[in-house]
Write a structure and sequence with these properties.
The chain is of the alpha/beta class. It folds into two domains: 5-153, Cobalamin-binding domain (Rossmann fold), CATH 3.40.50.280; 181-474, tm_1862 like domain (pyruvate-formate lyase- activating enzyme). The chain has helices at 24-35, 51-61, 75-88, 99-104, 106-111, 124-131, 212-223, 241-253, 274-282, 297-302, 309-322, 339-351, 369-376, 384-387, 407-433, 437-446, 450-457, 460-474; strands at 5-10, 39-44, 65-69, 93-97, 117-119, 143-147, 150-153, 182-185, 188-189, 208-209, 229-232, 260-267, 285-293, 325-331, 356-360. It has a seven-stranded mixed beta sheet with strand order 2-1-3-4-5-6-7, sandwiched between helices. A six-stranded parallel beta sheet has the order 8-11-12-13-14-15. Helix 12 (339-351) packs parallel to helix 15. The protein starts with a strand and ends with a helix.
């Protein structure tokens, strides 16, 4: 065995609303290590564990390989932590995986000289071959490494089509008390669409699914441990409708009653119809999210969404009528979008009794069509190396401007959209809990104070209480 002890690390999240759910991605890597008798431990800095704690853990554990899961937002913080760990344990090797390395490849090792290896795309087999001493570095597909002062990339590993070959995460050595009692599950990997703003098309356009039996088996495993709340974090859960029907049938067959399942990552509206929504509701899916992104067909065409506003409205209307909590994701101020276009988005939100909406400040990611357009036309007001480490899509801080929406107008619009977000969430809370006049007053006051709202949503205790109350109200009769 080349590496016998692996310390896995999630760097801090740049988002105020950090990670309160256990991370499934790194959970898959941890499970592969565990199943192959490779000792590992895990530190999740997204939920508040400090660099000092990480160092203390590393000195006690003495890993020979330290693995970082990194996204592009906040990457400089990740680099800094990596350098600190290299100074602390200079003989330990450092590997990074995740979106950042998959998109930028060799550039990551050029920018951070303390990274020894990079793993691109699906990491399960690559990390296992790296740890075992059965292959030379040159023969490990999907690996970036250093050799004789040069950075070498061995080429992409073919994407695994049979995802059932991987055991689902059991989160051994994870402190599950640190997280919400809502388990993230994935039915698929990959995205076939070409949206101009999304880096996911750079992460593999081949759509692959787990089998319905495997997927429901993961839910059943946690169900038997007392878990009833799950979040399906797929980009395209319903892309293949017949498989979703089989998932529903399998849940029903196994008699998994009392579920509260969120489809939290944004359906495409053209992937669902009313019969499918009704079937999903029957087996315990309670919340669906739609990636609306634009409020009219002009904007949708500009974003290369491949669907119409009429299709989107039909799906939202059906989901609301079927009885789902409906959440919408809308990007505010993309290239060519005007103030009038954004008013169309606001009108759409107010037209339906949706539970929540996120008006996201557009953050152009390297490698996306949107990023290339803004760079080509010199529209950045904050350089990418700065905004990718200081601005989130939750903040009213424009990172670029356009002739249609100059910087100052963008700030006003983003702040206005934030008020609409708060109004929608407040109205939802009143619908659910505001029958009592005192409760209604407290809800109204709470959502008038941004600090209280942020502290609530970013506090694990309050989030657990909220999830418990919502579960009791919506599921337990």
């Amino acid at each position: 065995m080349r590496f016998k002890k692996v310390l896995l690390v999630s760097p801090p999240s740049p988002s105020f609303f950090g990670g309160l759910r256990v991370p499934a991605g790194i959970g898959h890597i941890a499970q592969v290590l565990y199943d192959n008798a490779i000792d590992y431990d895990y530190v999740d800095m997204r939920i508040g564990y400090s660099l000092r704690y990480l160092k203390k853990k590393a000195l006690a554990f003495r890993p020979d390989l330290i693995g970082f899961s990194m996204i592009t937002l906040g990457y400089k913080t990740g680099y800094k932590i990596i350098s600190e760990m290299k100074q602390l344990l200079p003989t330990s090797k450092i590997v990074t995986g995740g979106h950042h390395i998959t998109i930028l490849r060799e550039k990551v090792l050029q920018e951070c000289r303390d990274i020894d290896f990079g793993v691109v795309f699906d990491g399960e087999e690559t990390i296992l071959e790296l740890c075992k001493d059965e292959m030379t570095y040159e023969n490990i597909k999907g690996l970036i490494f250093r050799k004789d002062g040069q950075i070498v990339f061995n080429g992409d590993r073919p994407l695994v089509k049979d995802l059932d070959k991987y055991a689902f995460p059991k989160y051994v050595n994870f402190n599950m008390k640190d997280y919400s009692r809502q388990i993230p599950v994935h039915f698929s990997r990959g995205c076939v669409y070409q949206c101009t703003f999304c880096p996911n098309k750079l992460l593999g356009r081949q759509y692959r699914t787990y089998s319905p039996k495997y997927f429901v088996g993961e839910i059943e495993y946690w169900y038997e441990k007392g878990i009833r709340q799950f979040a399906i974090d797929d980009d395209n859960f319903a892309l293949e409708k017949e498989k979703v029907y089989k998932v529903c049938d399998e849940i029903e067959k196994r008699n998994l009653k009392g579920l509260f399942i969120r489809c939290s990552n944004g359906f495409r509206a053209d992937s669902v119809d009313r019969p499918l929504l009704e079937r999903m509701k029957e087996i315990g899916i309670r919340e669906v999210s739609f990636g609306v992104d634009g409020g009219n067909n002009k904007v949708l065409q500009s974003l290369k969404k491949g669907e119409t506003i009429e299709t989107i409205e039909r799906a939202i209307k059906d989901a609301c009528e079927v009885g789902f909590d409906v959440k919408l994701f809308i990007i505010t101020g993309t290239p060519h979008e005007t103030a009038h276009d954004i008013e169309d988005s606001i009108r759409l939100v107010k037209k339906y009794p949706v539970a929540r909406v996120d008006f996201n400040n557009p953050i152009p990611y390297p490698g996306t069509e949107m990023f290339d357009y803004i760079k080509e036309h010199n529209l950045f007001v904050i350089p990418p190396e700065d905004y990718l480490n200081s601005v989130s899509d939750e903040e009213p801080i424009p990172v670029f401007e356009t002739p249609e929406l100059p910087k100052e107008e963008r700030i006003k619009i983003l702040k206005r959209c934030r008020k609409v977000e708060k109004e929608v969430t407040k109205n939802t809370a009143i619908r659910m809990y505001g029958n009592n006049p005192v409760t209604r007053f407290l809800i109204t006051y709470f959502f008038s104070v941004t600090l209280f709202e942020k502290l609530f949503f970013n506090n694990l205790f309050f989030r657990k209480v909220f999830e418990f109350i919502r579960y009791k109200k919506l599921v337990v009769k």
